[in-house]
Amino acid sequence: MPRGRPFSIRLADETLREVRALGKRLDRPVSRVASALIEEGLRQRRCPGIVFSDGPTGRRATVAGCGVDAWEVVRVYLACAGDVEAVVQALPQLSRRQVDAALHYYRCYPQEIDERLALEERAEEEIAHRHPMIRTLRV
């Protein structure tokens, strides 16, 4: 995360206790934790239907109510040549509204999603190189 500008803020005692506890648990400075929480809150407000989840690969944008990451929906969308109805068919666990939420998030934060897609592509190439008998299934 790039360095930001100093900014003073007053927090309720309970909120500050929670932010400090989270910083301690994550071994991160309180200012960095508070900044990340504000950023996530703003993103969620800008993109209704998106929440943030922790997982083995870190914190990521997830479609609310289903556990599918926004990048996963975008990957299917790109594989379907931008046909939203095909995405809804390919991901029957998602409603049209959930697919739209993920695509809206992509329009708002394309660099984040594109970087994740590139990371996934590199990981697949590495697996294919190490294990040539494994074939990647494409949607």
List strands and helices in order, with pairings.
Blueprint: H1 13-26, H2 30-46, E1 50-55, E2 58-63, H3 70-79, H4 84-90, H5 96-108, H6 110-130
Antiparallel strand pairs: 1-2
Helix pairs in contact: 1-2, 3-5, 3-6, 5-6
Walkthrough of the structure:
- There is one protein chain.
- With 139 residues, the protein is mainly α.
- It folds into 2 domains: 10-46; 49-139, Arc Repressor Mutant, subunit A.
- Helices cover 59% and strands 9% of the residues.
- It is built from 6 helices and 2 strands.
- It has helices at 13-26, 30-46, 70-79, 84-90, 96-108, 110-130, and strands spanning 50-55, 58-63.
- It has a two-stranded antiparallel ribbon with strand order 1-2.
- The longest helix has 21 residues, at 110-130.
- The protein is globular and about 55 Å long.
- The model has no long low-confidence stretch (mean pLDDT 91).
Summary, kept brief:
This protein is mostly helical and 139 residues long. The chain is 59% helix and 9% strand.
List keywords for this structure.
139 residues, mainly alpha, Arc Repressor Mutant, subunit A, two-stranded antiparallel ribbon, 59% helix, globular
Number of helices: 6
CATH architecture of the largest domain: Orthogonal Bundle
- The radius of gyration is 18 Å
Main sheet: strand order: 1-2
CATH homologous superfamily of the largest domain, by name?
Answer: Winged helix-like DNA-binding domain superfamily/Winged helix DNA-binding domain
Shape call? globular
Helix and strand element order: HHEEHHHH
Query: Which runs of at least 5 residues are low in confidence (pLDDT < 50)?
Result: none
- CATH hierarchy, class of the largest domain: Mainly Alpha
**Strand-residue fraction?**
5-15%
Percentage of residues in helical conformation: 55-70%
Number of domains: 2
Number of strand segments: 2
Major sheet details: 2 strands, antiparallel
